């Protein structure tokens, strides 16, 4: 069986579903032509969010400046307090006023099922014995262990928890060089953002006990877990059909995607899938619904051999529901472009999906640059 975390070849996509493989680039072009999915409030200072993930005990040399730094998990490799603390010390040295971090499947210390022997104590051992595999991934560390041994400093660590941060605009001395016309667009009013973080991942391949926060792939570890007032959602796993080997070989979580639809955050940051780093505008509309239906219907074909996958040609040609969804993706995508670029309409209510994995594939090197989003 091929490793689902390695990107298949382009012929594999086309053989499995030529309809979806050909639609994918058009869909991406239409998304970009629609413009930003959401603009900063006209009466407030924009917030610059810098997103990184999957640094695996390495340090990106020049992290961009910003108001908020987010790390979406896999700080280290072996999950030890030693490696995690070294990564945290690096993050603490960065100048960003606000920093938020969640764990990933390699950050074993934060899941009592996966904690290394060297990092356990008596209380942890008792808690470990009492926690079942079906519940550990969705319970907070604070429920079952002693206080963390990590010195976080000014960093907010989230594990099935939320924090609300206040962002104040630059002082007048910092904005002297800004033209009066630009200054008129902003206000001294502070802004608040509520950020929720959760680390759990579906175990789509067999994972040993050293991997943290895993849950069976068909288990719903997400429904009704994210507060509805969440502005920024941070998870380690991607949602299905977005920056996760999409479209046919999608390995994200469908239940997380449904939860994102329910909450509709301004920004959803994740990592885990190194091959799919990047950012994607989200509009929560019929084009997106149709695209996700197509991906979900073709997803089982990723398990087929090439010979069986060849049947995808016939299935696509004889699938009326698939053709209807293709038409919906194109029609509503073009309508969105006309609304934004021809009629001058403003996109409201959309957001961003960001796969912030810095690790380049499985190379052991950080080559995917940090992603920067302005809210």
From TrEMBL:
Entry-linked InterPro entries: Calcineurin-like_PHP (IPR004843), Metallo-depent_PP-like (IPR029052), UPF0046_metallophosphoest (IPR051693)
Q: In which organism is this protein found? A: Penicillium frequentans
What the entry lists under PANTHER family is as follows: ESTER HYDROLASE, PUTATIVE (AFU_ORTHOLOGUE AFUA_4G03130)-RELATED, METALLOPHOSPHOESTERASE
- Per its UniProt entry, which superkingdom is the organism in? Eukaryota
Recorded hits in CDD domains, A to Z, give: MPP_239FB
Q: Can you name one GO molecular function term for this protein?
A: hydrolase activity
Q: What is this protein called?
A: Calcineurin-like phosphoesterase domain-containing protein
Q: What is the lineage of its organism?
A: Eukaryota, Fungi, Dikarya, Ascomycota, Pezizomycotina
Instruction: Name all Calcineurin-like phosphoesterase domain ranges.
Output: 48-275
